[in-house]
Amino acid sequence: MQRIPREPDEFFKVFAYEQIARVGKALSAPARLVIMNVLNQGPRTVEALAEEAGLSVANTSRHLQILRGACLVRSERHGNHIEYAIADAQVSTFFLQMKDLASTCLTDLRLALREIADAPTRAEAVERDALIAKVSSGESVVIDVRPAPEYRTAHVPGARSVPVTELERHLADLPKDREIVAYCRGRYCVLADRAVEILRKAGFKARRSDVDVADWKAGGMPVEAGRHRDATATSGVQR
Question: What is the pTM of this model?
Answer without folding.
Answer: 0.85
